[in-house]
Amino acid sequence: MQRHLRRMLSAALLSALTAALTVTASPTSYAAPGCVDTSDSRSWGRGEVSACFEDGRARVRGNVVDLLPGGGLGGADGYCVAWYIEYETTSGDAYQHSPAACGHLGRTEQTFDYDPSAGQYGVKGITGVKRAVLNLVSL
């Protein structure tokens, strides 16, 4: 009787642990559809961006301005300004920079409107947008 009770208890414990592990190991839930809308201004650049994932489609719109264009490559400021955008995808997080404003290359302002999943190097399987951060980029 005691042996039978132990087996039942062991089976129940094993079932409970298996169910708990299954719940713990389930895939991370992805961001709900929607937009990340933000703007930022720093001493070196400013911009606005709207990165959206709605109705199964992704779209990024906005602009960036290089406020310290510098005197050319290798000058005091040889950086570009772009939005660093983090996406949630079916295979995990993915990152991408928006088009950049590069004053030292002759373009102090850049306006953009694009599908981040387009092209060979686009982000595939987007399920949500996590964040967007104004960033310096070295080219």
Protein architecture, described:
The structure is a single chain. The longest helix is centred in the N-terminal third of the chain and has 23 residues. With 139 residues, the protein is of the alpha+beta class. The strands form two sheets. The protein has a four-stranded antiparallel sheet, with no helix packed on it. It has a three-stranded antiparallel sheet with strand order 5-4-7, with no helix packed on it.
Shape field: elongated
Structural class: alpha+beta
- In terms of DSSP E residues, the strand content is over 45%
What characterizes the major β-sheet? 4 strands, antiparallel
Q: C-alpha Rg, in Å?
A: 24 Å
Q: Order of strands across the biggest sheet?
A: 1-2-3-6
Please, how many helices?
1
Query: How many strands?
Result: 7
The span between the termini is 76 Å
Helical content, roughly? 10-25%
Low-confidence stretches: 2-31
Averaged pLDDT:
79
What string, H for helix and E for strand, traces the elements in order? HEEEEEEE
